[in-house]
Amino acid sequence: MAEQKYKRRWGDRRDGRWVRDVPGLQTIMGHILPNRTDCECFMKDSFDVTELLPYLEKKNAEHPDYKTTVFHALVMSVARMVRERPKMNRFIQGRRMYERYDISLSFVCKRRFQDDGEEALMFLVPKEDETLDSLSLRIVGDVRETRKSESSTGGIDAVIDGFAKIPRLLLMPILRIVRWLDFWGLNPKALTDGDPNYSTVFLSNLGSIQAPAVYHHLNNYGTNSLFVTIGTIHKEERIMPDGSKQIRDVVDIGAILDERIADGFYFARSLKLVKYIFAHPELLDRPLSEPSNFDFNSKL
Questions:
Q1: What is the pTM of this model?
Q2: The predicted structure's pLDDT at residue 146
Q3: Which of 152, 226, 246, 265 measures 20 to 30 Å from 145, CA to CA?
């Protein structure tokens, strides 16, 4: 999804086009329920990763210098889902519906796995020819580069640190102006580029710290409408399509969405597509622009 696909019109934002053909119900919801945190829809499911794990094991044997993880597979699967389900790339800000020009994915990286270890904000925009291999390499490279320093060295982290040093009496009116600019889509790039609050999907790899997938709120600031968490892999008995029982490897996934950007039917089908990709990991080797050809009427 690239910005050149659209001819900028009056009312469009720098980060998204104004969706003018929105159903009346969604338009009114943007006014009656203007805060994103008032419209959170929580979805939780467990994904079967029995086929995914040997796929990743084989892939990692081919490049022992870095590891492709289940989290990387989730990031790529979600990117593919958003590419095929464009309404998942929408947001409401300033009481209007917009659709982003690009797919953007973000997550938090812990610089050190200690209580006092600082966190860094990671932000990436997958390319049209992106595959799991290239995406994983980018994530590993960005994380390694970030962990070379125990504190922020630039980007949105440095901007946040700079704001934090401003005295409270000055910071309060400054942030009121920032929120006003946010409402109208006028915040400068220095405040939005690299900020997860302005990404399509904010992801959290809680399995990396041996924690379960949890509910995580959205924020009223910014444009992020989808937050996804992934927990630890564990064994679970499943009923297979032929009626037999098997012990399978599964992982819990939590998704929090802004219910105003689409309806429950659209959300459920989008989650179903991610689950399908996990069950057929060979799809992750296809370029992002190549559709999965998933039959949404099929049963997983």
A1: 0.88
A2: 58
A3: 226
